[in-house]
Design brief:
Blueprint (H helix, E strand, L loop, with lengths): L1 H12 L3 E6 L5 E6 L6 E6 L2 H9 L1 H10 L3 E5 L2 H10 L14 H14 L4 H12 L3 H5 L21 H16 L6 E5 L5 H9 L3 E6 L2 H13 L6 E5 L2 H6 L4 E7 L10 H11 E14 L8 H7 L8 H9 L4 E8 L2 H15 L1 H7 L2 H19 L3 E9 L10 H9 L4
Parallel strand pairs: 1-3, 5-6, 5-8, 6-7, 8-9
Antiparallel strand pairs: 1-2, 3-4, 9-11, 10-11
Helix pairs in contact: 1-2, 2-3, 3-17, 4-17, 8-18, 12-14, 15-17, 16-17
């Protein structure tokens, strides 16, 4: 029976492109039709238990089967397999993968809400789960200059990852409308790339905060090496605690951090940002987002990648910020920029497979490239995107046209 259910799932799910399925008994089924632009992939399932595992929860089951070596990709790569399945059900054409029942979807939303409570202690633990695996891993696939673990910006064809990440920093800095002498807060500063860039290119004092001890140590070293250690202060502190201290900043930037806040903490996040922002201040929020309605975090991501994390819809992001009268002065959707970024990260991870396996093991490597493959497919064919939302507390705080953004960006390194 399991075989029949899997066959029907693949018959519906693979129409363009080809998927060959080799079962443990040696039998082969072929699904789909060759179409230009869609890959041809061959996979082998090692045992009937693997099929049952996938059917119970297609995404988590397939991920763990691949991680354990029970789902082998014999022709093509895991990136192509995930792309094939997602591209046959494109979100913007009404497609859905139908990976779970209504009951499982409802349970997923409840778990997402509970995970999103995300108090300070659990927030630090959740961040450590992903970022404290060691800086050596991230050095292997991130851009070498800024170590940006977030969506790059690709205004031109033929750019390197390093160029695209510098362009992203310029794009964001221009939206901050920084003035000489401003104080800047970087919430979720990572390895310090944004803070260092701002200190190098503006007459400002920057405070970067993180909950990752690994990131903190390296960020401090990188700021010192860049010669801006006297103008950049990094601290291991939760944004909620910082707001309680009563500090104020002229500009606030947060890149790739809002995804870790948790759905239940959205109101608190924006309330604290409003408390941290000076009266004539401005803020730029850069976050992964959903192009559709609010959803839930899938089981694979929740278990292995970002425990406590949640990708917000634009509707719930704005609804939360409206409650504290933060004015959304500009919204941009970076539709395909993260897909290009993720493909570059994937290529670098594959090229550095031996080094990653030495650092961890084969199972970790397969988990990581499955994560990057799934994320790429979500941005190319699913409902994921990146939003950049500019906020102000006063309608008079920023110029009334967007011209200043373009002019400032062109004048900055990478712009």
């Amino acid at each position: 029976m399991a075989l029949g259910i899997l066959d029907r799932f693949l018959e519906r799910g693979v129409r363009k492109g080809v998927l060959e399925l080799v079962r443990a008994d040696g039998s082969i089924r072929r699904f789909g039709t060759p179409v230009e632009g869609y890959p041809e992939v061959r996979i082998r399932l090692m045992g009937k238990a693997t099929e049952r595992r996938i059917l119970r929860d297609p995404r988590l089951g397939a991920a763990e089967a691949f991680m354990d070596g029970h789902l082998l990709v014999e022709r093509g790569h895991i990136m192509e397999l995930v792309y094939l399945l997602r591209a046959n059900a494109r979100w913007d054409r009404g497609g859905e993968l139908h990976e779970s029942s209504r009951l499982k979807s409802a349970i997923g939303k409840v778990i997402t809400l509970i995970d999103g409570i995300n108090r300070a202690a659990s927030a630090k633990r959740n961040i450590a789960h992903h970022y404290d695996v060691g800086n050596d891993l991230y050095r292997l696939f991130l851009d070498s200059e800024h170590m940006q673990y977030s969506c790059a910006y690709w205004p031109r064809e033929g750019m390197t990852l390093e160029e695209a990440q510098t362009a992203k920093l310029a794009h964001i800095a221009a939206k901050l409308a920084i003035e000489p002498g401003n104080t800047v807060l970087d919430i979720g500063c990572g390895w310090g790339g944004m803070a260092i860039y701002l200190a190098q290119n503006f007459n400002v004092a920057v405070k970067g905060i993180t909950l990752s001890e690994e990131q903190l140590a390296l960020a401090r070293r990188r700021a010192a090496d860049a010669g801006v250690g006297d103008r950049v202060d990094f601290e291991l502190v939760d944004y909620r605690d910082l707001a309680d201290r009563g500090e104020k900043f002229d500009r606030i930037v947060s890149v790739g951090m809002f995804e870790h806040v948790g759905q239940a903490q959205f109101d608190r996040f924006f309330r604290d940002c409003a408390r941290l922002m000076a009266d004539e201040g401005a803020m730029l929020l850069h976050t992964i987002g959903r192009m559709g309605r609010p959803g839930s975090t899938d089981a694979f991501t929740r278990k292995y990648i970002f425990p406590g994390g949640y990708i917000p819809a634009l509707s719930e992001t704005l609804a939360a910020s409206e409650k504290v009268r933060l004015i959304a002065t500009d919204v941009e959707n970076l539709r395909l920029h993260y897909a290009k970024t993720l493909r570059e990260w994937y290529k670098r991870c594959v090229a550095n497979k031996e080094a990653i396996v030495r650092l961890y093991d084969e199972r970790f490597y397969r988990m990581w490239i499955f994560y990057l493959s799934g994320a790429t497919a979500a941005f190319e064919s699913g409902g994921m995107c990146n939003y950049q939302v500019q906020y102000a507390r006063s309608r008079h705080a920023l110029p009334i046209t967007r011209t200043y953004m373009v002019e400032s960006e062109k004048a900055l390194p990478g712009g």
